């Protein structure tokens, strides 16, 4: 198991409810070790890259109404 850590800039986080919605979307992905978002639009993530890929995480964010910043 190789755990990857990254802090992404994410647009669309406006309130605590958004933070909870984002956490719920990421929590459904198998392989997410931790996901901590703040109101400044930063999401600190750790995931098992054998079970989930970065592209899947970005797609889950998109489906939940958020956008990972380009180059994040």
Summarize the SSE layout with pairings.
Blueprint: E1 3-11, H1 16-27, E2 32-37, E3 42-48, H2 54-63, E4 67-68
Antiparallel strand pairs: 1-3, 1-4, 2-3
Q: What percent of residues are in strands?
A: 25-35%
Give the mean pLDDT.
92
Tell me the helix content: 25-40%
Please report the number of helical segments: 2
Distance between the terminal alpha carbons, to the nearest Å? Answer: 23 Å
- Spatially, the strands of the biggest sheet line up as 2-3-1-4
Please give the number of β-strands: 4
Largest sheet: number of strands, sense, barrel closure: 4 strands, antiparallel
Categorize the overall geometry.
globular
In the predicted model, the low-confidence regions spanning at least 5 consecutive residues are: none
Query: Structural class per helix/strand content?
Result: alpha+beta
Q: What's the gyration radius in Å?
A: 11 Å
> What is the ordering of alpha helices and beta strands?
EHEEHE
């Amino acid at each position: 198991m190789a755990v990857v850590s990254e802090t992404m800039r994410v647009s669309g986080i406006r309130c605590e409810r958004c933070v909870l919605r984002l956490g719920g979307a990421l929590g459904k992905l198998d392989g997410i070790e931790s996901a901590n978002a703040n109101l400044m639009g930063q999401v600190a993530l750790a995931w098992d890259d054998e079970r989930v890929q970065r592209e899947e995480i970005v797609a889950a964010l998109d489906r939940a109404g958020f956008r990972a910043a380009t180059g994040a």
